[in-house]
Specification:
alpha/beta; ten-stranded mixed beta sheet; about 20% strand
Length: about 375
């Protein structure tokens, strides 16, 4: 609207010609100046300027909308939104259908909590035929830590959809729909993003998974505090892929422990240091935070936290503009993640954002810099 041409706004020809002569071409050119500045620049009276500005504003500014009209518009265009159902009934209901298209969804949690299991199940569901509730497409799976297992994914398929996977050759066909990339470094990942974009457009790709973003960034810091986020460009690019291709993008993030004096340690780095003192992981339970920091957190639209409370695994919605903050206890079976109960537990106040690891052994404490 700001770039709408004044010459197309049906102003009186006399005043329109004056705007053009003074190189005021668009609505933005006119509305970014005060009326007195326009009087001086155009050499016309206040009344003429006021009428012209009111006319330009009326045409250039979008009409007011009510919450009801926005809801009606969204319902009419629901097909543009769309979701990838997780087949976890309670979680899908809370997420209004599942993992949404067109945005970045993040899975956060300590090592071994079930993030990769969840990702492999999503890859399976996206590659399922549409006749069986899947997306019927290909999947690009960026496997940074070499944790993806086609055998495990097929096991999930046989356990979850025996009527499909016992059909001759279908298991191999569906596994062939998942393209696995294993970049050895952030620079290699950066180079592969253009290939990923082309594949998304040409190969009927319905889901992009990056497991994990934190591992990509872990080796990018030298000595001293970082001057900028190492994934700043990647954040913007991945968001644009989700929006442009209208597909769900799922990324995993790990956790780090943060002491009260702001000294932080990544929990995913396996690195021994002579001066590191072994400490009880439970001492850090109340100070666990997502590894990639605030800048990254603002870039994701949905954040699901996988955590452990007294030995029980919990998945909760920590960030969403449309979903309540609820959690669901789960366990991992041959078919993947399964909820123990579809009735969610409401997360009150700071409990929604805290990350717990009580009774979970997958924590490694190593000194490193903080990602901001």
């Amino acid at each position: 609207m700001a770039n709408k041409l004044i010459s197309e706004m049906n102003l009186p020809k006399s005043i329109a010609n004056v705007f053009a002569a003074r190189n005021i071409i668009t609505a933005k050119d006119a509305l970014s100046r005060s009326e007195f500045e326009l009087m001086e620049l155009l050499d016309v009276g206040l009344e003429e300027v006021t009428i012209a500005v009111a006319h330009i504003s009326e045409i250039a500014c979008p009409p007011n909308q009510t919450a009801m009209s926005l809801l009606d518009h969204r319902n009419q265009n629901e097909y543009l939104a769309g979701h990838l159902p997780t087949r976890l009934e309670g979680l899908d209901a809370a997420l209004c259908g599942g993992i949404p298209f067109g945005v970045v969804t993040e899975l956060v949690g300590p090592a071994g909590i079930g993030k990769t299991q969840f990702c492999m199940k999503l890859a399976l569901l996206a590659s399922l035929p549409t006749s069986h509730g899947g997306l019927g497409g290909r999947v690009i799976y960026v496997d940074v830590e070499s944790k993806f297992s086609s055998r495990r994914m097929i096991e999930m398929g046989i356990s979850s959809f025996p009527e499909i996977f016992h059909m001759g050759g279908l298991a191999q066909e569906m596994a062939g729909r998942v393209l696995v990339l294993r970049p050895a470094s952030l620079s290699e990942f950066t180079e592969s993003l253009q290939q990923i974009k082309v594949s998304l457009l040409q190969n009927h790709v319905k889901l992009l998974i990056i497991d994990s973003m934190a591992a990509l960034a872990s080796g990018e810091y030298g000595q001293g505090p970082p001057r900028h986020h190492p994934l700043g460009w990647h954040i913007s690019y991945i968001k644009s892929l989700a929006e442009f291709c209208r597909i769900p993008v799922v990324v995993t993030n790990q956790v780090r422990s943060q002491s009260r004096d702001e000294a932080s340690r990544y929990l995913f780095q396996v690195e021994s240091r002579a001066d590191t003192t072994t400490e009880d992981p439970s001492n850090f339970d109340s100070h666990l935070v997502a590894a990639l920091g605030i800048h990254w957190a603002h870039a994701v639209s949905i954040r699901l936290v996988l955590e452990s409370r007294s030995g029980q695994r919990l998945i909760k919605i920590a960030k969403s503009s449309i979903s309540p903050s609820v959690g669901f206890f789960f366990h991992i079976t041959s078919s993947g993640i399964s909820l123990l109960n579809n009735e969610g537990v409401e997360m009150m106040g700071p409990q929604a954002n805290k990350i717990h690891c009580q009774g979970h052994s997958g924590i490694i404490n190593c000194d490193t810099e903080v990602l901001q």
